[in-house]
Design goal:
Number of strands: 14
Distance between the termini: 24 Å
Strand content: 25-35%
Shape: globular
Number of helices: 7
Structural class: alpha+beta
Radius of gyration: 19 Å
Length: 312
């Protein structure tokens, strides 16, 4: 499945998230450490820079090609600093039936909507679910669903549940919209009798806040009774981690070696990174996001305020 990351805090060079660390996001497309599949179906990015023209609008980049060979992305990453970042490398099943296209590249963001979303997971029998989800999507957004992914439908459900999708939601409005979308998915799955393991790890940002969801419907229920045929990805791709601190970058480890890490500790934190797996070799400052929970962060007085809400 996919790999994704979120960043919120002091402006950081995109290169320091996407390329330079030991397990940078682009490296995870071909060498993930907590996944047994490669992520070969494209790369997408939203990056908000408060010093840029029209700071409320993010830099947008997307390509269905492999990011490790993308010179345009590398050149941009070496020049752009951002205070909020949402990045995603797409992984799909190895099948000729899968659609690899720009329309299916995450993150998803409808025109005029501040919120953007990326997804790591796979909703079972999504083609059967779509007709039953239509009544819960605002009519204005239905024509904006242009791809074939379950992820874009999850995004449409969340923005449709917001009081006003065209403004930045409050923390409570965003969390309530996520919970409402999960309730709808749960109800539709029950209506269709779907009881297969289906992951919904979500990465959400609007430039001033982020939310990360670690969730799985019917975890442990698979289409086969033979444990030997359970795909390894079902056991490992639900990983989700975060780290708080300051001074994210290359630091001396005290032994004359330099390595990428977040320093300063949580008490003095000015930044947060959330990722499918830790970006740095030193994982001592990374903490797992609880299962069946939403992690939310926003900057208050220059420091990230983090809350965790558990889901049913």
């Amino acid at each position: 499945m996919c790999r994704a990351l979120l960043y919120l805090g002091q402006p950081v060079l995109l290169d320091h998230l996407l390329y330079q660390p030991d397990s940078a996001l682009v490296r995870q497309s071909y060498m993930p450490k907590m996944l047994h599949l490669l992520n070969l179906a494209g790369f997408g990015l939203r990056a908000w820079d408060p010093g840029s023209h029209s700071p409320a609008s993010p830099f947008m980049y997307g390509s269905p090609s492999l990011p490790v060979f993308d010179r345009n992305l590398k050149n941009m990453a070496e020049k752009v600093r951002a205070s909020c970042v949402l990045g995603h490398v797409r992984g799909v099943a190895y099948s000729t039936t899968v659609d690899i296209s720009l329309q299916n590249v995450h993150p998803f963001q409808f025109p005029g909507v501040p919120l953007a979303l990326a997804h790591n997971g796979d909703l079972a029998r999504m083609s059967e679910m779509k007709p039953l989800l239509v009544p819960f999507v605002h009519p204005h957004f239905l024509p904006e669903i242009r791809g074939t992914t379950d992820s874009e439908w999850i995004y449409a459900l969340i923005v449709s549940a917001l009081p006003d999708p065209r403004r930045h939601p409050t923390r409570e409005e965003l969390l309530a919209a996520i919970e409402r979308a999960m309730e709808i998915l749960r109800a539709v799955r029950a209506q269709l009798g779907i009881s297969l393991s289906s992951s919904v790890n979500l990465f959400i940002a609007d430039g001033s806040q982020l939310a990360a969801v670690r969730y799985c419907f019917d975890f442990g229920c698979y289409a086969t009774d033979d444990p030997a045929r359970v795909h390894e990805a079902n056991l490992s791709y639900l990983s989700l981690w975060y780290t708080l601190g300051r001074g994210y970058g290359m630091h001396d480890d005290g032994l004359g070696n330099k390595e990428w890490r977040m320093s300063g500790g949580t008490e003095n934190a000015d930044s947060i990174i959330v990722a499918s797996e830790p970006l740095t070799r030193d994982t001592s400052t990374w903490v797992e996001v609880p299962e069946y929970a939403i992690l939310h962060a926003e900057l208050t007085g220059g420091a990230p305020v983090v809350t965790v809400r558990y889901l049913d």
